[in-house]
Design goal:
Blueprint (H helix, E strand, L loop, with lengths): L1 H14 L8 E3 L5 E3 L22 E3 L5 E3 L9 E5 L6 H12 L1 H6 L3 E6 L3 H11 L4 E4 L4 H6 L3 E2 L3 E2 L2 E5 L5 E6 L6 H17 L2
Parallel strand pairs: 5-6, 6-7
Antiparallel strand pairs: 1-2, 3-4, 5-10, 8-9, 10-11
Length: 200
Amino acid sequence: MNAVYNFFYTRCAFTLFRLDMPYSQIRRDGTLHQGDEMGFRLKESKVEVGSMAPDFKLPSQSGQLVNLKDFLGEKPVVLFFYPKDDTPGCTKEACAFRDDYEEFGKLDAEVIGISSDSVDSHRRFAEKHNIPYLLLSDEGRKVRRLYGVPNTWGLFPGRVTYVLDKEGIVRHVFSSQLNAEKHVEEAYRVLQVIKNDKFR
């Protein structure tokens, strides 16, 4: 199945459009900026900057149920929705978050990945790539729909990252299907802004 997914993903990604620009981000004045990715308009997300992040409960790679509200009030959270375990772009993204995991820890932030893969798939993916953070299984895609994560070309699950502050307010939304590692850079940058705001 992964081979089929990789083939069609690669063909579509590099022959139809190049979706590697921000979908939605904070402007310097704090307002939400909705972007087109190379002229292709994505469906507007239900969860926007300034929204309270919807609560949910999903199983992790260990099978343990994880509730978002357990982190709120304690620390900022990075939620990154990705299409599929062990595909090229998703592996790059997951490993980039892994490589900078200690830096996120210094900002007291929790990193959580979410896809529609099974718990067993997440467990194998985490073990194969030494993933230290939570990977949550959203097999019915209910949480993906709850957050309004758009599909790309109506075919592939979107790649969208939400940065939540300690109170659960969405401070940044970044969407890019192909520029997977940029999600890590954007999340870290916004967490630094949040930290600096805290000490002003």
